[in-house]
Amino acid sequence: MSSVVDDPAALTPAWLTEALRSGGHEIVVRGVRHERIGTGQIGASYRLHLDLAGDADGVPKTLVAKIAAGSPESRDRVKEGFRKEVGFYTHFAALTDVNTPTCWYAAISDDLLSFTLLLEDLAPAVPGHQATGCRTDQAVASVANLAALHAPLWCHPVLHEHAGWLTPMNEASGTFLGDLMGMATEQFVERYATALGEQDIGTLRAAAAAMGRWTIAGAGGGAPFALMHGDYRLDNLMFQPSGPGVSAVDWQTATTGPPVRDLSYFLETSLRSDQRRAVEHDLVIGYAAALCARGVDYPADRCFEDYRLGMLQGPLITVLGCIYATADPSPAADEMFLAMATRSCAAIRDLGTLDLLAG
Q1: DSSP states along 199-226
Q2: What span, in angstroms and rounded, lies between the C-alpha atoms of 262 and 129?
Q3: pLDDT for the residue numbered 207
Q4: Per-residue confidence at 221, pLDDT binned at 50, 70, 90?
């Protein structure tokens, strides 16, 4: 088995030949050229231009290599994200129907501080832009892709076998997260005090206060669970320029939980609030219908209630992502976090999410 690479210079023809052959591809890489792409927060990605000898056995001439980046200290803080992404491609990508890059090689070090993925190059697809939002046809395709992720492993016992790294929520972790959200929300409000309205500040604080209860709401007792992306939003989706075709990337937040929270989070953060209000009912019903077509018994009215409840996924990921990000603050990041926060707050109020938790 080939080793884990921690430096793009180590992505040599010999290393790549061994790595690809470990997956059963009888090829020889004669040469390689790499270029940095993307702006990953917990990893670095490089496009590899391969010079392949003879019959390439279906291996494309370009791949994307994703490896760990940053200091040992910063890696230690996000190493569970490394583990989740490698674990998704190793154990689950082939068990779902979600559009995601084909993985040609995956490895992670024993201490979880280094990893290497060789992934399909999705070019000319480009990532969505969180602050701008997406078109309705792109939202339709993204929702269908979520159903393709969730349905094959809906309430599937195989997910319990990987609970150690998928880390489903329980009462203890919910309490911890609730306390963490309380502190992080105050920092978030202080950082963006001049940009947030009083109504949104009140909603963020109320959401933080309810977070401990919310994390375990709708869990257990026969409630549905599935493999979740956990951060299914525009920056983690790649769209083809010729149409709404979409692929999901960046699986560092993969987990097991109430699957509709992925849907709530996507719609509340990725659509302008007026746009969401106009199309969300049809999109949620379409998601339920797509699950039904794949054999999942999940009534549309139950789906919509779970969708309403799932809205706290927005402030959860937005606030914690902002306050504990490893990257330095920037105007672009501020624009993104504010768009996500204000859209989430509007959705929480529109859909009465906090009332559901109080009831």
Answers
A1: HHHHHHHHHHHHHHHHHHTT-STT---E
A2: 18
A3: 97
A4: low
